[in-house]
TrEMBL record:
Keywords: Methyltransferase, Transferase. The lineage of its organism: Bacteria, Bacillati, Actinomycetota, Actinomycetes, Mycobacteriales. Pfam families: Cons_hypoth95. One of its GO terms (molecular function) is methyltransferase activity. InterPro entries: DNA_methylase_N6_adenine_CS, RNA_MeTrfase_RsmD, SAM-dependent_MTases_sf. The keyword Ion transport does not apply. The keyword Transferase applies. One of its GO terms (biological process) is rRNA methylation. It comes from Corynebacterium stationis. It comes from the Bacteria. This is 16S rRNA (Guanine(966)-N(2))-methyltransferase RsmD.
Length: 189
């Protein structure tokens, strides 16, 4: 059973597809969201949840005060669960996109998102390509979190993600590792 941990929808149960997804554990979500709440907060943020599965990560952000949340997953079954779960959470600005993450990023609004929560399948082998596609859709000082398996190679963050050399500490929860970085748009010509 998966529940929303905090915020206006705290304690509400959401459904998870039985196949094709690997939900982020409650412990990992709680740790991640506690860390994000302390450093950034969620109030008024524009959140993108890629490889969303049930939508648990994005809906947690919605429950905690995000202004707008976009849930993206290619699976039709996942999209049905996300739609159900969005109704359970009751946030008016949750948008569901049934398409591949790369396709969505090609079409997404530019310089829009303050926070990206990406949980690709552990077998996904183009994390660096995904990060490169994120840059145009990120607002300045956006936080990007990518969940990977602990023994996966760490992402190669482009210069825009570490302009001050301040890469955030990675967090591990069981077999999951959360890699985080802050994006800073280069304003110099």
């Amino acid at each position: 059973m998966t529940r929303i941990i905090a915020g206006q929808a705290r304690g509400r149960t959401i459904t998870v597809p039985e196949e094709g997804t690997r939900p982020t554990s409650d412990r990992a979500r709680e740790g991640l969201f506690s860390s994000l709440a302390v450093r950034w907060g969620f109030e008024g943020s524009y959140v993108l949840d890629l490889f969303a599965g049930s939508g648990a990560l994005g809906l947690e952000a919605a429950s905690r005060g995000a202004e707008e949340v976009h849930l993206v997953d290619a699976s039709e079954l996942a999209a049905k669960h996300m739609a159900h779960n969005a109704k359970v959470v009751g946030h008016p600005k949750v948008h569901i996109h049934q398409m591949k993450a790369g396709t969505y990023l090609d079409r997404a609004p530019r310089e829009h998102f303050d926070m990206v929560l990406a949980d690709p399948p552990y077998g996904f082998d183009d994390v660096d390509g995904l990060i490169a596609k994120l840059a145009p859709v990120l607002a300045d000082r956006a936080i990007v979190v990518i969940e990977r398996q602990v023994d996966s190679p760490e992402p190669n963050w482009p210069e825009e993600f570490t302009p001050t050399g301040q890469k955030l500490k990675k967090r591990t929860y069981g077999i999951a590792r959360m890699d985080m970085a802050v994006f800073e748009r280069n304003t110099h010509d």
